[in-house]
Specification:
Elements lengths: L1 H4 L6 H4 L14 E8 L13 H31 L6 H8 L5 E4 L8 E3 L5 E5 L9 E10 L1 H7 L1 H7 L4 H4 L2 E7 L3 H13 L7 H13 L3 H13 L4 H8 L3 H4 L5 H14 L7 H5 L3 H9 L8 H15 L3 H12 L10 H8 L6 H16 L2 H10 L15 E2 L1 E6 L5 E9 H5 L6 E4 L2 E3 L2 E11 L6 E9 L7 E11 L4 E12 L4 E4 L7 H5 L6 E2 L2 E10 L2
Parallel strand pairs: 1-6, 7-10
Antiparallel strand pairs: 1-5, 2-6, 3-4, 4-5, 8-9, 9-18, 10-12, 11-12, 12-13, 13-16, 14-15, 14-18, 17-18
Helix pairs in contact: 5-6, 8-9, 9-10, 10-13, 11-13, 13-15, 16-17, 18-19
């Protein structure tokens, strides 16, 4: 269990330093025999490798292992067809290099074993290889204490206490690749001393991989903590998120992956500013960015458009794109925060499975139709959810709710809510804009201002209505601004009028509430209900 293997649990075995006993015959009851298989040229890591080099070497090793597995499968099939069964023990060694190969055996008698000056043994085997006539296997022996290793690792605990022949033998054999040698030795050292001799990023990653393979949770936690304390970069963050799934799912590594996600989310929170960089992020990176509540975008419509653009760049084949959108990316899009105009386009998007598109749009519309108190309840319920659908991000344009009427005249009622904190930040000359809404085929928006009154004697809150499209077509609109007001909490009309828009124009009132800014924003202000300013605008096309 993890609590039994953590160096900071305070237990006598896990917190004590037994470094003096490492590889000491006087404090050991077993002999660990490590068979080290050579790597292909260029795949063995170097102590001075950069993180990019480490990632390339790891990818090369994975590709080589996959190739070897395919070749051996073909060889095995050929042997079976020829009536020759392969050597099962030798087959285990190469069938899956990612799995640990553990054997318990006596040292061979009369074999051709030579020990070099560094303490390594070299053995020659007549095994066929696609790149060499003979496979050279180095063997290293280490004196170990089975109680210490068993206390730190479920892998070694099972090996030493399974009641089988292995648990009774003195010699235990592990077979690894040459690229894993240094990391395994560091790991064994850690299991005695709770420290690591090498703490470079690449060395820590190698040991983390070894600790995962041999189930040493305390070392995984130790490596994760040291890596988390190093300066984070985009390169390292993406590398941490690309670790094997067994590592990513481990609780001991969760703080490291969380830190990597938070770094990427903070680094690219303004998608429009880093659009090309974000487009080039791999899947794990784009997921980290899209998860953030602090994403600075114009609206959720922009998030949806960007997700489609990223998917089209990375998955040009339609079927693959549909799959990645359905299973990985669309869950990060907060459809209830999108405009109804964009939701209509979701239903006709060929990149999205039609059944899924119908479901997310229907759920979004149901949320929009909920009463405000129910919407707040749904938002509160998902604060700890893995994927958020209802929580609004840091949109540059505030979401609005729109009710449209076609008869007897074209009319729309627009609701805009502003939090007290948002209004406070407007002082002394700030502005906040709503998302666009449409009436009579024209795009409009609302804006709230902190400005001076007509006589420029004090600051006050103003509200304006603007038209998006610039043009020469006259467009006359009757409008009315209202706000919920305590104690009745009903909407009370504050200003009404009519205006002929020609595009790119705005009309409104500089002092909507007829009161200074200090009174408007005060704690006892009648215009904030539970910390929210509720504004309403009614627009009617005048014929």
């Amino acid at each position: 269990m993890e609590s039994d293997t953590s160096p900071d649990t305070g237990s006598p075995v896990s917190s004590s330093d037994f470094g003096f006993a490492f590889n000491d015959v006087n404090f050991s009851d077993r002999l660990l025999r490590i068979e080290i298989l050579p790597d292909l040229p260029g795949s063995k890591p170097d102590a001075d490798d950069s993180l990019a080099d480490w990632a390339r070497n790891r990818k090369r090793r994975r590709d080589d292992q996959l190739t070897n597995a395919v070749e051996l499968a073909d060889q095995r099939e050929e042997q079976i067809l020829n009536g020759n069964m392969p050597d099962l023990e030798e087959g285990v060694t190469y069938e899956n290099q990612e799995e640990v190969v553990a054997m318990v055996e006596e040292l061979p008698v009369g074999g051709e074993i030579a020990t070099d000056q560094s303490g390594h043994e070299a053995a020659q085997r007549n095994e066929a290889s696609s790149s060499m006539d003979y496979l050279t296997v180095q063997v290293k022996t280490i004196h170990i204490s089975s109680p210490i290793l068993a206390a730190k690792s479920p892998f070694f605990y099972k090996l030493f206490s399974n009641g089988m022949r292995e648990s009774e033998q003195r010699h235990v054999t592990l077979r690894i690749q040459a690229s894993e040698e240094a990391a395994l030795l560091d790991l064994l050292n850690f299991m005695y001393s709770n420290t690591l001799p090498r703490t470079t990023p690449t060395a820590l990653l190698d040991v983390l991989m070894a600790a995962d393979k041999f189930e040493v949770a305390s070392c995984m936690r130790y490596c994760s903590r040291l890596l988390r304390n190093l300066p984070m970069t985009c390169e390292s963050a993406l590398l941490y998120l690309d670790l094997p799934s067994t590592i990513l799912m481990a609780d001991t590594v969760q703080p490291l992956t969380d830190a990597a996600k938070q770094f990427l989310a903070a680094r690219f929170k303004d998608i429009s500013k880093f659009q090309e960089e974000v487009l080039n992020l791999p899947l794990a990176g784009i997921e980290a960015v899209l998860y953030s509540d602090d994403l600075q975008v114009a609206s959720e419509d922009a998030v949806y458009d960007f997700v489609l653009k990223w998917a089209r760049v990375h998955y040009p084949k339609l079927e693959e794109r549909k799959e990645i959108l359905s299973n990985r990316l669309l869950r990060f899009v907060r459809f209830p925060c999108m405009t109804c105009r964009k939701l209509k386009k979701v239903l006709t998007c060929t990149d999205i499975d039609q059944e899924l598109a119908s479901k997310v749009v229907m759920d979004a519309l149901f949320f929009k139709a909920e009463a405000p108190y129910r919407q707040r309840s749904l938002v509160a319920e998902e604060t700890k959810a893995s994927f958020r659908r209802f929580v609004e991000r840091a949109y540059k344009y505030r979401p609005v709710k729109v009710v449209e009427f076609d008869s007897p005249r074209q009319q729309c009622v627009v609701y805009l809510d502003l939090k007290r904190e948002e209004c406070v930040q407007l002082f002394p000359a700030g502005r906040v804009y709503s998302q666009a809404f449409h009436l009579g085929g024209q795009g409009f928006f609302l804006s709230g201002h902190c400005n001076m009154d007509q006589q420029s004697s004090f600051h006050c809150f103003g509200m304006f209505l603007g038209m998006q499209e610039k043009g020469s077509v006259a467009f006359t609109v009757d409008y009315e601004f209202a706000s919920r007001t305590s104690p009745s909490e009903d909407f009370v009309s504050k200003y009404k009028g009519n205006y002929t828009f020609t595009g790119g124009k705005a009309v409104g009132y500089r002092n909507l509430f007829g009161t200074p800014w200090t009174a408007f924003i005060a704690d006892d202000s009648p215009y904030f209900i539970n910390g929210v300013l509720h504004l309403r605008a009614e627009l009617t096309i005048k014929k």
